[in-house]
Amino acid sequence: MTYEFKGFIPVVHESAFIHPQAAVTGNVIIGKDVYIGPGAAIRGDWGGIVIEDGCNVQENCTIHMFPGVTVRLEAAAHIGHGAIIHGAHIGPNCMVGMNSVVMDNVILGAESIVGALSFIKAREVIPPRSLVLGNPAKVIKRVSDEMIAWKTKGTQLYQSLPADCHSHLKPCEPLRAVPADRPRQEALYETWEAIRRAK
């Protein structure tokens, strides 16, 4: 789960949760209420990685860099399933969509949203509150107050997930049939499309 490399041992706040199937290596600092999902590879072997308070790095994400670079995820950054962050700086309260790639020396401005499957090429500087889509990615419009409020609510779910995992996640044997009293899961969040349709 966590690995020392050349004298660097990851520093992880006690409130953070790193899934046992994630790998965190070397010069990595992880703040409060951070969630690291299964399959994530956070590899601080050639440079540093700082993941500030309230961030989440979801399943199968990769964070790495060229030698001598420090990758930083500022507070409440939200990195969707399968995304790659390579040598970039992700601003506070940003969201990087599923399977997106953010390349070396990119600066993603505060409260920006990167759409799923986008590719941000090296050395791009994205202004704050930008909605970024495509391959190569382009800024298509400014992120609205409503959109950032929706993103922030989703990130808050992930900020509560580490405590839930510490309390409730445990290995188990599977059931062989669905029990009659199986509980219903509560609806905690709506998609952006559902919110827009409701208006």
From TrEMBL:
Q: What keywords sit in the KW lines?
A: Transferase
Q: Which Gene3D superfamilies match?
A: Hexapeptide repeat proteins
Per the record, the domain of life is Bacteria
- Name of protein: Transferase hexapeptide repeat family protein
Query: Known Pfam families for this protein?
Result: Hexapep
Keyword Secreted among record annotations: no
Q: Which organism is it from?
A: Phaeodactylibacter luteus
Look up keyword Ubl conjugation and say if it applies.
no
Tell me which InterPro entries the record gives. Answer: Hexapep, Transf_Hexapept/Carb_Anhydrase, Trimer_LpxA-like_sf
Q: Name one GO molecular function term.
A: transferase activity
